[in-house]
């Protein structure tokens, strides 16, 4: 199976939750068997977590890349945010079900249970 197809299946699976996260649902979407969905998900995760992949593609930005990002932030938003060169606000990570401890605290504005992730870096 082409790598692009394997990545697409894994990403589709990662983006599902609840009943839509079942192997059968993903297999129906992808037009393959449940075993293939499990296999390609394992293959994709093995590749992504391989040290050679992490060393080559997961890194902090260079000084030039950070400066370019800071300039973009300054020109497209509030100038005071310039040194917060990398910001992600309000990314919801859906949960399959209500958590046992303080579960109602995770009920979001979209009527799902989720974690809200916010990242800010001022390196």
Question: Number of folding domains?
Answer: 2
Low-confidence stretches: none
Biggest sheet descriptor: 2 strands, antiparallel
Shape: flat
Order of helices and strands: HHHHHEE
Multimeric state: single chain
By secondary-structure content and strand pairing, the structural class works out as alpha+beta
Which sequence of strands runs across the widest sheet?
Answer: 1-2
Task: Report how far apart the termini are.
Answer: 41 Å
Query: Strand content of the residues, in percent?
Result: 5-15%
Number of helices: 5
The count of β-strands is 2
Helical fraction? 40-55%
What's the average pLDDT? 84
Evaluate the radius of gyration: 19 Å
SSE layout:
Elements: H1 3-14, H2 23-30, H3 34-48, H4 51-57, H5 63-76, E1 86-94, E2 114-121
Antiparallel strand pairs: 1-2
Helix pairs in contact: 1-3, 2-3
Organism: Ganoderma sinense ZZ0214-1
Protein name: DDE Tnp4 domain-containing protein
Primary descriptors:
alpha+beta; 46% helix; DDE Tnp4 domain-containing protein; 123 residues; 14% strand; 2 strands; flat
Describe this structure in words.
The chain is an alpha+beta fold. It has 2 domains: 3-57; 63-121, no CATH class. 46% of the residues lie in helices and 14% in strands. The chain has helices spanning 3-14, 23-30, 34-48, 51-57, 63-76; strands at 86-94, 114-121. Strands 1-2 form a two-stranded antiparallel ribbon. The N and C termini lie far apart (41 Å). The model has no long low-confidence stretch (mean pLDDT 84). This is DDE Tnp4 domain-containing protein.
